[in-house]
Amino acid sequence: MLDIGASELLMIVIVAVVVIGPKDLPRALRTAGRWIGKVRRTSNHFRSGIEAMIREAEMEEMEKKWAEQNARIMAEHPQVDLSDHEMRPLPSSAAGAEARGAPDAGIGPPPPPASANDEPQLPLR
Asked: Which residue ranges does UniProt annotate as crossing the membrane (predicted)?
């Protein structure tokens, strides 16, 4: 943002001490800090307003494209009704194991069935 080197910063400090004086320098720095804080808050508020306007414009553009696409599909396929179509997640039966929160479900072969002759195995040390 600002390209101030060490020598330039030292020169600013020396001039500030000479012009303002060592007694009033802390008060001047506090005042400058408050002004910088106000400028930053105003800048952030302005930036967030601009970003909100950009998001709204993008949403309007996406809605316009969606409407154009629906109109094109309706013209090509009059038997399809997209008037009440909305995007929603797939039901868990269609989405697979990942949608149910079990990412490992169904991966790999099933465990062998336990028989009556099997002895319980103790963990090895």
From this structure: 6-25
Measured between alpha carbons, how far is 120 from 20 in angstroms, rounded to an integer? 86
Q: In whole angstroms, give the CA distance from residue 21 to residue 45.
A: 35
Burial per residue of 72-105, b for 16 or more beta-carbon CB atoms within 10 angstroms, e otherwise: eeeeeeeeeeeeeeeeeeeeeeeeeeeeeeeeee
Per-residue pLDDT tens digits for 30-44: 999 999 999 999 999
Which pLDDT band, with edges at 50, 70 and 90, does 3 fall under?
confident
User: Is the pLDDT assigned to residue 47 strictly greater than 60?
Assistant: yes
97 touches 105 (CB < 8 A): yes
The tens digit of pLDDT for each residue in 84-103 reads 656 555 565 544 545 455 55
**Alpha-helix residue ranges (DSSP H) falling in 21-124:** 25-76, 92-95
Q: Please report the sign of the dihedral spanned by the C-alpha atoms of residue 9, residue 14, residue 17, residue 18.
A: negative
Please check whether residue 62 is in contact with residue 74, taking contact to mean a CB–CB distance below 8 angstroms: no
